[in-house]
């Protein structure tokens, strides 16, 4: 199962990072194209330091990576980590969908036996 592919605490960091709307927006922007932290800070009504903290939380979760380009650090989204999290959610969806199908089958059989 995909959960086993995440290291201890990694999955918690991924979903904790994705729980914040500013972090989701930063992730979306950096998945489209790399942006410096300074450039990212221009999109939000918060301090540069606050944006840096959001980027750091995303980086700890493995959702973004920073690469030095001259004097700037360019932030790039990491689709691999996002894909792993999406795969995990799809597995949970299949699990619950299969259970709902089996329950519907049991209920249909009970209805058939009582009529």
UniProtKB/TrEMBL annotation:
* GO molecular-function term, one example from the UniProt record: DNA-binding transcription factor activity
User: What top-level branch of life does the organism fall under?
Assistant: Bacteria
The record's listing under CDD domains reads: HTH_ARSR (cd00090)
Which PROSITE patterns does this entry report, sorted A to Z? HTH_ARSR_2 (PS50987)
Q: Name one Pfam family in it.
A: HTH_20
State the InterPro entries in the record: ArsR-like_HTH, HTH_ArsR_DNA-bd_dom, WH-like_DNA-bd_sf, WH_DNA-bd_sf
The record, for SUPFAM superfamilies, names: Winged helix' DNA-binding domain
- Domain HTH arsR-type, chain residue ranges per copy: 3-99
PANTHER family according to UniProt:
SLL0088 PROTEIN, TRANSCRIPTIONAL REGULATORY PROTEIN
The name of this protein is: Transcriptional regulator
From which organism does this entry originate? Actinocatenispora thailandica
């Amino acid at each position: 199962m995909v959960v086993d592919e995440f290291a201890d605490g990694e999955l918690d960091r991924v979903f904790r990072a994705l729980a914040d709307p500013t972090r989701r927006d930063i992730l979306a922007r950096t998945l489209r194209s790399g942006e410096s932290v300074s450039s990212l800070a221009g999109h939000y009504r918060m301090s540069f330091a606050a944006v840096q903290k959001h980027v750091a939380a995303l980086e700890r979760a493995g959702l973004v990576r920073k690469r030095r380009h001259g004097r700037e650090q360019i932030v790039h989204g990491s689709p691999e980590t996002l894909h792993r999290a999406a795969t995990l959610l799809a597995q949970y969806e299949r699990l619950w969908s299969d259970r709902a199908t089996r329950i519907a089958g049991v209920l249909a059989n009970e209805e058939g036996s009582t009529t």
